[in-house]
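User: I've been trying to design a sequence by hand for this structure and keep getting stuck. Would you show me what you'd pick, starting by listing the structure so we're on the same page?

Assistant: Good idea, let's start from the same input. This is the structure you sent:
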């Protein structure tokens, strides 16, 4: 179960989503550490391995699911201790099953729980012995540590599910359960019928807002150094260093980049030199060796927002290019700044975020939202 444990690694400039869980690794002594699992099926257990190689790591004990009495363990240099009468709830088979489920979840594919619930739906639609057997097999394929969560109901846990797939007179996977009576089976059926009604009602509700994710493909604005305006710049015109002059107060700056760096410096003579510089590269070089305004890091996003608004207000043709990106995620590369650029997932992409904000404001103006 991933929950809020979301991370990623970058491979060839592509962000691979992942998550993590605790595990013991035996490298001489034992270490309590994090096992990272990624959507492309690789697992980091102090080295990236495939799922098949991970099974071998379990077989050889590199990833440990049991610990011997007296085993010495440390955790991230925080503590060191010895085990006395250790007990583990994991087995190698169970850990592999949980990892496989996690990879399915990261890829938004049905995991073992999803496959089980689909088999249960098939049985409820056509209640044959074959369909119940298929549902029973699918239920037992869920890692035993996850079965109680299968229905997402912490009051009933998996009771309706294990009773339904066992059938009248059958035995559940829990030895402590009595044989399934007809009354218990009927209660389980009633539970699923009520669950289907809840699901239908939930799906007919109208969302309070639009989609959470954009439907347009992401737009990548690669790092570039344009020096002259062109007749049809396309998305190059969305770069901050594209030569689209903007007027701020009484000063005309050759580009957003010129304006941003000029406003960032404290010395007026350097500001004038930046404004007159031929290229954005020269602008950065001039600004780099000059003190910033005090507290610049606290106001820079507000300054950039104002400059982007000015650019697209004063250049309607470029505003049309920005509007044409629809609701796409804007990924802005800036090899000189991990704050403004995405930089293959290693930066904060603030330019991309602010372009999306200004684009939304342009859409708002075009649609004439009253009172704003």
């Amino acid at each position: 179960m991933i929950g809020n444990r979301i991370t990623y690694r970058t491979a060839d400039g592509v962000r691979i989503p992942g998550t993590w869980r605790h595990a013991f690794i035996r490298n001489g002594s034992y270490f309590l550490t994090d096992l990272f699992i990624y959507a492309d099926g690789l697992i980091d257990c102090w080295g990236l391995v495939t799922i098949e190689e991970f099974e071998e790591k379990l077989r050889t004990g590199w990833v440990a699911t049991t610990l011997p009495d007296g085993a010495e363990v440390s955790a991230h240099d925080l503590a060191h201790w010895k085990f006395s009468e250790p007990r583990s709830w994991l087995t190698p088979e169970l850990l592999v099953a949980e990892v496989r489920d996690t990879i399915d979840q990261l890829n938004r594919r049905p995991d073992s729980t999803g496959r089980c619930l689909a088999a249960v739906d098939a049985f409820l639609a056509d209640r044959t012995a074959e369909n119940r057997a298929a549902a029973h097999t699918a239920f037992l394929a869920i890692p035993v540590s996850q079965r109680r969560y299968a229905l997402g109901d912490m009051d009933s846990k998996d009771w309706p599910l294990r009773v339904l797939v066992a059938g009248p007179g059958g035995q559940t996977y829990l030895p402590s359960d009595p044989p399934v009576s007809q009354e218990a089976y009927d209660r389980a059926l009633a539970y699923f019928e009520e669950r289907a009604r809840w699901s239908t009602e939930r799906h007919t509700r109208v969302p309070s807002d639009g989609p959470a994710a954009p439907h347009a493909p992401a737009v990548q604005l690669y790092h570039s150094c344009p020096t002259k305006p062109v007749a049809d710049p396309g998305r190059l015109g969305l770069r901050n260093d594209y030569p689209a002059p903007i007027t701020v107060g009484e000063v005309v700056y050759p580009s957003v980049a010129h304006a941003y760096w000029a406003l960032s410096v404290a010395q007026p003579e350097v500001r004038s030199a930046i404004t007159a510089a031929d290229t954005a590269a020269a602008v950065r070089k001039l600004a780099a060796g000059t003190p910033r305004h005090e507290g610049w890091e606290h106001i820079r996003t507000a300054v950039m927002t104002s400059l982007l608004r000015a650019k697209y207000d004063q250049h309607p043709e470029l505003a049309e290019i920005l509007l044409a990106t629809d609701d796409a995620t804007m990924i802005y590369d800036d090899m000189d700044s991990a704050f403004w650029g995405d930089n293959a997932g290693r930066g904060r992409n603030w330019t991309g975020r602010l372009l999306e904000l200004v684009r939304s404001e342009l859409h708002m103006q075009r649609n004439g939202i009253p009172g704003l």
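That's my pick for every position. To get oriented when you compare it with your attempt: DSSP finds twelve helices and twelve strands in the chain. The longest strand covers residues 14-27.
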